[in-house]
Design brief:
The structure holds two protein chains of two kinds.
Chain A: H1 3-16, E1 20-26, E2 29-34, H2 39-48, E3 56-64, E4 72-80, E5 85-93, E6 99-101, H3 110-121, E7 124-126
Parallel strand pairs in A: 2-5, 6-7
Antiparallel strand pairs in A: 1-2, 3-4, 4-5
Chain B: H1 2-7, H2 16-25, E1 30-34, H3 38-46, E2 69-73, H4 78-90, E3 96-100, H5 102-106, E4 127-129, H6 136-152, E5 161-163
Classes of the chains: A alpha/beta, B alpha/beta.
Chain lengths: ~160, ~180
């Protein structure tokens, strides 16, 4: 493990040991799986601590593993402009009504990313200031990037104007 | 020609409808519905090299109230379809539609849930243009074909014409899929 990754991981273990589920490093990239109920706390720590300063949320996206457990996930790619260092946070939410706390309070840029994740995967972000669909029409009932959504869509779910 | 000989030189007799259609076809005002990359080729057609002004259609108007022909140039999503239809409804009669490019004509390479598989599902199309994107020449060819339709008094999607290689006929396969 690279020294930078090791430092961040040690710090996380020291401060939020009970929030970490697993960690992995692949090609010098550190990925830490975090408990979903602790995500805001961990994010705020990583942004504010002078030894980490992950001041940029590069991306926040959803994932559908299509497995019986740990089906829906939310992934946060963080970047520290000051330290030029990246880290990836992973969380998995329960399948029936996937819900996770919003990190818009930590990084303002999470606003639209979380709207997109909500639109495409149907993951609800509690505490989001404006959780509307991003791409699909407001009246659309499905979430297209879920694996059980057919590629050509569901006939009649999107209305066309009359000819 | 009894009437012309009676009036002397400088007069010709014709049908009023024919002369109106002749006027119309030589000053078609396009509504540039440029939704994606086909719009670049449409702009090239309006530029000096291809010069759509040779056919009297250089006046691209951005108000649908002043247009005769809507050139739908680009991928039309379900969300955009409502906008395209609204703009079409705002155009005064008589009006015509050119479906420019593969996406507009049949969905093209976007066989997916968000893209309308051919704008003829919600608009009467007069000329389809093949290509991804079509060259400006093809758009001009479509315009010439449309001028023929205007001269014949055809409108609102009667006898649609096709420009380019559509493989014999227009690909219009309906696919219905169910949730597993």
């Amino acid at each position: 493990m690279t020294p930078e990754n090791q430092q961040v991981l040690d710090l996380l273990r020291a401060m939020h040991a009970d929030a970490i589920v697993a960690e992995a490093e692949f090609r010098d990239e550190l990925t830490v799986e975090v408990k979903p109920e602790r995500i805001v706390e961990v994010c705020r720590f990583l942004r504010d601590d002078p030894r980490t300063v992950f001041d940029l949320l590069a991306d926040c996206c959803g994932i559908d593993m299509y497995t019986p457990t740990k089906r829906f996930g939310v992934i946060y790619n963080l970047y520290s402009l000051k330290r030029r260092h990246r880290i990836r946070l992973k969380t998995f939410v329960e399948e029936e009504s996937p819900t996770i706390a919003s990190v818009t309070g930590v990084w303002g840029t999470a606003n639209w990313h979380e709207r997109e994740t909500y639109d495409m995967f149907g993951i609800e972000f509690t505490g989001h200031p404006d959780l509307r669909r991003m791409y699909m029409p407001e009246e659309f009932e499905y979430h297209p990037l879920r694996k059980d959504f057919p590629l050509m869509g569901i006939p009649g779910s999107l209305e066309l104007p009359k000819k | 020609m009894g009437l012309e000989s009676a009036m002397g030189d400088g007069y010709i007799a014709t049908k009023l409808e024919w002369i109106i259609n002749w006027c119309r076809k030589n000053s078609l005002y396009p509504m540039p519905m440029g939704i994606s990359c086909c719009a670049i080729e449409m702009m090239a057609a309006a530029g000096p090299r291809f010069d759509i002004a040779r056919f009297g259609s250089e006046v691209m108007r951005f108000s649908p109230r002043q247009c005769d022909v809507m050139i739908v140039a680009g991928t039309t999503t379900y969300k955009m379809a409502k906008v395209v239809r609204k703009i079409y409804d705002q155009m005064p009669d008589p009006k015509w539609v050119i479906a420019m490019g593969a996406c507009t004509s049949s969905g093209g390479m976007y066989r997916t849930y968000s893209v309308v598989q051919g704008i003829d599902q919600f608009l009467p199309v007069d000329v389809y243009v093949a290509g991804c994107p079509p060259r400006p020449d093809n758009l001009l060819n479509a315009l010439i074909l449309l001028q023929g339709k205007v001269q014949r008094g055809e409108c609102r999607g009667t006898a649609p014409a096709m420009v380019g290689d559509f493989g014999g006929k227009k690909h219009q396969q309906q696919v219905t899929l169910q949730l597993p």
